Amino acid sequence: MLELKNIRFDVREGTEDIGIIRDVSFTIPDNKFVVVTGPNGGGKSTLARLIAGIEKPTEGRILLDGVDITDKSITDRARMGISYAMQQPVRFKGIQVLDLLRLASGKGTRVTVAEACQYLSRVGLCAKDYIMREVNASLSGGELKRIEIATVLARGTKLSVFDEPEAGIDLWSFQNLIEVFEQMRDSIKDSSILIISHQERILEIADEIIVVADGKIDRMGPREEILPSLIGTTSAVGVCVPLGGKPAAVPQVPTDENGNPIPKSQAKGGEI
Ligand SMILES: Nc1ncnc2c1ncn2[C@@H]1O[C@H](COP(=O)(O)OP(=O)(O)O)[C@@H](O)[C@H]1O
Ligand SMILES: [Mg+2]
């Protein structure tokens, strides 16, 4: 179980402290699949970084199974069972995909090549093409993202945090990924999953949904309660919100009688 208690995260800009996260508290119980959603710039990735230990809160405490981990390092938290797939993963020059998966699993060479390949297949990568590849600039953003998700699968920890796993992933792999998350949800045991996502398909398999906007919790609760209020609203699709400001206006796209967008060239007056 993960508990965030009155978390604040301020950054200094000039002489001013700006509140990126403003008094956020929530609990992720064991055996739950929780999705955090909300507009871009709302503070979701910052929350993930605070949980992983990449950033330290200005105020508040973070507890894992009742143990205060607020002052623990990224490595300590990883050892204690928190794994994290970033929105924008980093490359590791000189390290092969196989090494990375073995490293992530904590089992080293006890992970066979066949096992490592299974993790890659689960995220839609043809394992034989990737297993010996170096995790360097030759990989595209989407490939890197999938490899990072595979490392989280290989780790199989108490709390797995995924930041927008769908970003940069093609539709076919996305279907695979949904299945991976469904399997994870079904086989959850004494662990929990936190996914940051805008995707309706992912929101649909959540036990709980937390909507974060403007550095605060806008609302949270069971999926049945929160999801209907999100469908068709800007919160689910991530409209840009300036810090401390109001959501930017959603551009009005002209539609035909069936609600389908009319291409700009055909729209009356050519203006959108
Ligand atoms: N270390 C930082 N320094 C300055 N601004 C930051 C820092 N971390 C996050 N922000 C700002 O905080 C806001 C929330 O960012 P982020 O957590 O990435 O939002 P989300 O993931 O919901 O889109 C953004 O406006 C971002 O630019
Ligand atoms: Mg983000």
Structural descriptors:
single chain, 272 residues, alpha/beta, Rossmann fold, 6-stranded mixed sheet, 4-stranded antiparallel sheet, 12 strands, globular, binds adenosine-5'-diphosphate, binds magnesium ion
Notes on the structure:
The protein has ten helices and twelve strands. The chain has helices at residues 44-52, 74-80, 97-105, 113-122, 127-130, 141-155, 171-186, 200-203, 223-230, 234-237, and strands at residues 2-13, 16-28, 33-37, 59-64, 67-68, 82-85, 92-96, 134-135, 159-163, 192-196, 208-213, 216-222. A hairpin with a 2-residue loop joins strand 1 and strand 2 (16-28). Residues 235-243, 245-253 and 267-272 have low confidence and may be disordered. It is 32% helix and 26% strand. It starts with a strand and ends in a 35-residue tail after the last helix. The protein has 272 residues and is α/β, with parallel strands linked by helices. The strands form three sheets. A six-stranded mixed β-sheet has the order 6-9-10-3-11-12, sandwiched between helices. The chain has one domain (2-238): Rossmann fold (3-Layer(aba) Sandwich).
Describe the global form: globular
CATH superfamily: P-loop containing nucleotide triphosphate hydrolases
Count structural domains.
1
The overall strand count is 12
Strand order in the sheet with the most strands: 6-9-10-3-11-12
> Looking at CATH, which topology would you report?
Rossmann fold
What's the architecture, going by CATH? 3-Layer(aba) Sandwich
Radius of gyration over all CA atoms, rounded: 20 Å
